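I have been asked to look over a protein record a colleague put together. Thanks in advance; the entry in question is below.
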Amino acid sequence: MIPYTVNIKLAARTLTGTVHLQNKPAVDWGWQGLIAQGCHSSILIIDPKTSQTIQVLERHKANVVKVKWSRENYYHSLSSPYSLRLASADSSGKIIVWDVVSGTAHCEIQEHAKPIQDMDWLWAQDVSRDLLLAVHPPNYIVLWNGDTGTKLWKKSYAENILSFSFDPFDPSNLALLTSEGIVFITDFSHAKPPGSAGKKVYIASPHASPAHSKPVAATPAPTGAKKALNKVKVLITNEKPSAEAVTLNDCLQLSYLPSKRNHMLLLYPREILILDLELSQTVGVVAIERSGVPFIQVVPCGQRDALYCLHENGCITLRVCRSTSSSPDESEQSVQELVYDLRSQCDAIRVTKTVRPYRIVICPVNENSAALVVSDGRVMLWELKSHSIKTSANSLSPLYSPVSFCGTPLGQNQKRIPDLSLNTMIAEPSRSSGQQEVQLKFLLTSLLSGLPLPPFALRMCPPLTTKNINHYQPLLAVGTSNGSILVYNLTSGLLHKELSVHSCEVRGIEWVSLTSFLSFATSAPNNLGLVRNELQHVDLPTGRCFAFRGERGNDEPAIEMIKVSHLKQYLVVVFRDRPLELWDVRTGTLLREMAKNFPTVTALEWSPSHNLKSLKRKQLAAREAMARQTVSDAEQSSVESSVISLLQDAESKAELSQAISAREHFVFTDTDGQVYHITVEGNAVKDGARIPPDGSMGSIACIAWKGDTLVLGDVDGNLNFWDLKARLSRGIPTHRGWVKKIRFAPGKGNQKLLVMYTDGAEVWDTKEVQMVSSLRVGRNVSYRIMDIDWCTSDKVVLASDDGCVRVLEMAMKSASYRMDEQDLTDPVWCPYLLLPRAAITLKAFLLLQPWSDTFTMDIMQVYVDIKSVLMDPELNLLQRCLLVSRLFGDESDMQFWTVAAHYLQSFAHARQLNSHLDICNDVLCESSFFQRFQLERVHLQEVKRSSYEHTKKCADQLLLLGQTDRAVQLLLETSADNPSYYCDSLKACLVTTITSSGPSQSTIKLVATNMIANGKLAEGVQLLCLIDKAADACRYLQTYGEWNRAAWLAKVRLNPAESSDVLKRWAEHLCSPQVNQKSKAILVLLSLGCFHKVGEMLHSMRQFDRAALFIEACLKYGVMELIGAAFTEYARLLRSLGLKEGAVLWASRAGGAGEELLEELFKAEGAEEQPGLEEEQENLQSTE
């Protein structure tokens, strides 16, 4: 049997409880796979897969109001490794950027002393990965370098800024939600502050009308989506609305939609509005019926056009956008607006005064799990699961599951991971055969709960000794205000047991063995000042509780304290205005109730000295004498005497535990400060010596006794140290007010003393009589101390009024711990916790492994289903790369491999693929799909238009898209009293009469070029599109810096060859030093099939592993030739990581370029038989 070992080393840690209202927005789920959550002034780092708190960061003095993980949108290598970086901001305006693994701060930033309204990292990380934008109240935005803490620029706006949102498709766009409306910034850059004040758009509230200018709660809700839509028609205006037409701007949230470009959502308590920003017009509404539960928050998804909504009852709903592509048999006008169908919802929670849902966060990598933070400190993790059904009975359009896995069609026998991510669960709406219809459900997969509301009563179990080392567990009992007792195991920091023991607040706990304790609680006093006392004995292994004092306890003075003697034989119960009671703990009997004239006790402590040893010696001597009489001399010699003594020993021990009652003493003080000494033996109680009061001390509040040292503390903050051996006493004034509690540290000869005051705590060394460390509210910490105890000989545990219990070193500095030094109960899969080199090695190992016997490194922490898929020989290289980038939460890798996998297959099969890239990739999508999407969008804009401006914009778009007939209809709608009436009518005539004759074409071209030269770029481009000169139009747009517009036009109007030229020019522009968006350029080139160029670029950007694997995949699909240098460099990288077999494999495939490296490798190996093995691996690799 394996011996049970005890881990006595306890890590400093924080057990957290309820969440403060200011912490409400402070939660974030990062690409790294971890959740950060603010709890008062601390930050918890939670691993959602194993639901453990793996780090608590403590440095803020005020409540944390925002936390944000840094983005992982860059290429990771040894020089730019996988690291856990988190920015947190508090209500005093301080921002800290953390290195989460070591628990230290990279930098601290302070601009003003007001709470930070919002902050986020810049997502375009080609230039720098360290830029952090923050809103400093009331109206400043500041760009910081999050690594050094330097301010890059600062800009102020006219209104108060509430929050902001970056455009996920264009890093130069930013939208600010202000107290009056929205400000759109289009020239955001890290180099300089935005030049203009931005375009202001005012929001007239959806319920705006003079009748309802009461606060939001009183506003009657629209009964249905139709009513909401009518009101929304006039939602967004460029003029400031009149005062009575605007209620307080009750917009709760604004975010860009990451699933399609130029769309934004606005959240109101009773509806979500989807805006098309090209038109500034509402194109969709999700409204709640009158009886429905209002929204608190919405998280839009990127992988599918879907919304996770949080409601006030804690229910999370998933709404997926209905397909807008109308089927041929329906009428043209079928699609009136974007409709988000409710597809799944989870159970609500029970909402009370203290229990409210705060926020949800969604896993950004997979977008199929949500974490809900509740105000009582719970974090609930909901996962979305899909299950296939025959045909749906409901009226909603069916959802289908995709037929591909990780971007590639599934092989015959290929394993797949069910519910890997949102886009592998539901397909983009399209009618392809062989798809399975699915339904979605939420499943609660784990729950983290915190401590209840303070105050707490703490007591650590008896200390570790040589006798109990084999079965010792460091248990901490925490009594709570609702009468329950929580027992925590401090090795893991996890809740060991929760016991509902009392019906009122627990006042104190005393352990009577390693597995049982006594606790007492007192109810609120009645009008006579009497209470109900509850004193319970609890046995931990069984959970059995019984009332220790039997029937007693009703209508009597309150219990002040209970004290158990050192040998756990006796118990003293001290009451407020009544003499004390003395109990025998072992038998549960009352030994003595003191007489009426017994002095009032102010403080009491048992003495550590007792006569147990001498009693044992006497008993053993008596035993031996008896044994000698009964055993004759002959027998004596034959039986080993040691056996007898062993038997006697065992016997005596068994009897000792029952029979012997050792003599123990306790001392107490009365109201005058006189010290009494009382001896207890069996049921005999003797009064001992009395020591007169010390004149320098006030009323004694507490006593502690260990060895030959006795310490008294009084209400004025004086400590009196008595050395009983030398008969000396020494008084020291601490000037800290009432001494609430004093406790000696455990351990032989350890004379440290922990003292608690109303404003903090101190540790004293009683040998030297000097203070070791101190903690004071307002000076070192912001919380007040409620209770204290020692948990080991060098660590203390403190309960504080912010609802936390902290285990601290003796220095009492609250510090974060190193994550790699922790003992976690469950292993955590998070490559970011590894050293940079180890993380890169692990990645190489997962990517490249021809699963041969030569590799022995085991990766047990990867979850079982993922492991079986990784080892599946059917998994091809592209799928493996995409899956590993998901496992690592590597945003830039995922983006690259998604686009690469799609276009490699597309070009290999001569563009015969049924599937297309999701629209969230915008201009990277196929032209035909992109064109269809834009036409649907204009159709929707047309249905929604509500002013001449809108109609004009629609007509312009239709002309660019080549839909001339429809454009003419719109142009002819202009009313006669409109100043543009004449102009529009002529334009309509022009569009209908355009012929392809030479003269008319050249005239129009001349006019267009003149217009463009004179600053009318949009009009000139339209004319060029009319005469099918869209390629020239794109060139003009690019010359005038309208690169995105040019790419859009090329996608919707040009043939593949012309479009390719335009996009290649754009890619070159993106690579230029002043733009520096090479990662975007690579994606554009991938979509054009310029694979060789991509391979060269990756190699020149020193992204060796990505380059080599990409070229390898291209070779498999036969779409490009070998670039040997990239393979050689990857082999060098693997050699530096110590993966020799891999290095040889890639070097041998690099052709001539790798020969030199191969020689080096073989010299190093000094082995000749290696090539055979390499060929074997090569074969394995090719079969894979």
User: Anything to note?
Assistant: The chain has a mean pLDDT of 85. The chain has 25 helices and 60 strands. Residues 612-630 form the longest helix (19 residues). The first strand starts at residue 13 and ends at 15.
